[in-house]
Amino acid sequence: MAESESQEGDDYNRGKMVENIKTDMEELLEEMEKLTVRAAWMAYSYTAIQTNADLSNAMQHSEDVFLMCKEQMEKKWQEVLLESRSEGEKKE
């Protein structure tokens, strides 16, 4: 009897973990969509600036924005990894 209760608890924990992972993945997808829109605007801006005499400054700005986006994504990814690891340790 105790064994079946333990198995039910494990099943519940697995289900909860899957739910958490799904939520985390949805949040990451949403963040990726936002970054994709920002990258599209950057590409549009890049195309628009090619006729601009101040191309060097505009290119530097585009690179800075890209690096900022990349850094934010890496931070978010590390947070998700740390959260999933800590959740896994709590369940053990």
TrEMBL record:
It holds the Pfam family Synaptonemal_3. InterPro entries: Synaptonemal_3 (IPR028145). This is Synaptonemal complex central element protein 3. It comes from Junco hyemalis. GO terms for cellular component: central element. GO terms for biological process: reciprocal meiotic recombination; spermatogenesis; synaptonemal complex assembly. It comes from the Eukaryota. The lineage of its organism: Eukaryota, Metazoa, Chordata, Craniata, Vertebrata. Signal peptide: none annotated.
